[in-house]
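Entry 14. Ran structure prediction on the chain below.
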Amino acid sequence: MESKMHALRVLEFEAILERLQRHCETTIGAERAQALLPSFEPDAIWRSLETTRQAYEALARYTVPPLGAARDYRQALKRASKGGVLGGQEIFGIGDALRAMRGLKTFLAARREDAPLLAPFAEALPDAPRLEQQIEDSLEPDGSVKDSASPALATLRQRKKSASARIVERVQAYTTGRTRDLLSDPIYTVRDGRYVIPVKAENRGKIRGIVHDTSGSGQTIYLEPEDVLQLGNALREIEASERQEEQRILGVLSDKVGAVAEEAIGGIETAGEVDFLLARARLGFELKGTIPQRVEGNFIEIEGGRHPMLNPETAVPLNLSVGKGRSVLITGPNTGGKTVSIKTVGLFVLMAQSGLMPPAIHLRMGHFTQVWADIGDEQSVQQSLSTFSGHIRNISEALKFLREGALVLLDEVGAGTDPAEGAALAKSILTAMSAKGATVLASTHYGELKAFAYSTEGFDNAAMEFDAKTFKPTFRLIMGAPGASHALRIAERYGIPKEVVEQAREGLGEQAQDIAVMMERLDLAHRQARIAQSEADRRAADLKRMEQRASQKLKEAEEVRATAHGKANEVIEAALREIRLEANRLFEELKGSSDPRAQEKARKGLRELQDVGRDFAQEFLPKKKQQPVPVDRLKKGSSVRIDGYQQVGILVDDPRGSAATVQVGMLKITVPVDKLQLAEKAAVGVANKPSTNLRLSKAMNASTEIQLIQQRAEEARNNLEKFIDDAVLAGLPSVRIVHGKGEGILRKVTHDVLRAHPSVSQYRDGEPAEGGAGVTIASFK
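Output, structure tokens:
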């Protein structure tokens, strides 16, 4: 137990619990938070984490009832259950607690589907709304009894008020009447609950009554007049009856509280437990924590982890995996973050196995059967232990009680003694712990241990990155590579004379220098490889995004093509229908008339109809991009063509700004200048197209549907009338009018317009598949 508490202490688990307590609303919840310890049983661990996850999602999705009123009234409730009379404040507080617990009960009962581990707590919470209401009707928040608590109390307080008023009225008569001159001051005061007047000492006996006090000088006596005394005694009797009635009411309420005491005590404890669970979730929100993904075995993999006590804005994220038979030895310079990395891993394991959410982007873990930690300065003056001795004592205890599946954290393993002996001892310790089935995460400076981790099955190297250009640590952990200590370079940077550093370098010996250079080159090569991999990953991600974007564009283009094809078919069908109708009409005129002029007129109409068909066909040919005509060449009277039209028009005036007015047949159209092209004057006559072109244009551009939703009634009426006229002119058989359901105003406007229009043969509400009552389908004659 001592070693377990030692690991909790050196990993600063207590600081996490202090933050957890701040998120508790109840004292019982805070007590549970303070006593929280990690579990080492897998079923308990994952059930606890799942409960936290459900609480986390409940906080994110719902408004959780406050629990601050569910204070610890267990002792008061026990007194009430034994027949004791509680104070007004205690009873009122219990009423508040009952109300808070009932709100929590309702909330949890509704979470049976999405929070099945929280919902059962509802069964242990009391439900006593009548008692809550009676307490609220009887007591003020300060515990005083309300007049409405009983008719008798209301009557007594009314009598008390009247008696007090009579006393004041009578005593004021002494300060304003004939006796005023007998007083040292024309005022009255209260002494020991009695109304007295200040009488001059020489007037003693001139007013009958009882003296209650004398001034310091002896010049004034404070007298309660005899008639005021009698009124005061009557008031005292009323007050005594009032107190008796108040005590009776408190006794009745205490009895009712005592009747639900057992249930209320259980409810307060349950509310404290739920408060504790919600506090775990709130801490998760604060830390931006995550619920671990469960994997089998003794293993933890951290992505983007941060030590909970470091500033999340500046802390360098930790990426590390350890376990499943792979221990990790971290090397690198001092102040490089080795200790923080080890503590982060240990703290994450303790938090997760306590049902808390460690701060990481992603976390995968199984569970560990123990956590041992030997971190920091273990020197003890009281026990006469050196730093090395303190470390060895902790490690000795770990080796003695170590179980398979344990996590062992060792900071600077083997340090504090002769380097050769320390390195040899460290190898033996690491080998022994690994042989017992433990997962070890350790840090070291010893070069021999880097080689040991490289060559020993079950161990991996990791290094704290060091920037060779700035000679500063980056605090980033690199898995899979040993790190150089850079001690000589750091010493030189921080002011050690160059000749001293050179002498130290020479003292290393050739083999040591070669190893140091090799380690630095390996470190550099690993960093360059990581940069290259990062760039490759970035390019691969860019390529994937481009492929996705291209695929999306192709999909959008196909949708546009399909839509355009459908619209083109609609336009072609409408235009051909109009051409056929007009042609049939002209043929009928030719057959049914012998007048040469009428026949010539019909033939001219057919020729014009042929021109219209040719113009229509031109609309579907690819358009060549034409350069806009310079504005200075466009003059009043110029013959021009408008982009998209075959007709030739005449400029009515010189262009003004970017627009010009063109006379096309009987119409004057204002168009942008860049839509105009000069035309031959001889072609102007072609502009006089028959009215068929207007109908054909309608057929080409007619829509079979109009949207009226969110339009004002008058605006909708005008738009609908124009739409119906265009549809009739285009020869459409029917149209769809979308007006929505709403309050039915636009539906009424629609039906009024359709009912009055001479070309509408019938109209009806849409079928369910067509839009139901929010749509009207109109057919034409």
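The mean pLDDT is 81. Will compare against last week's run tomorrow.
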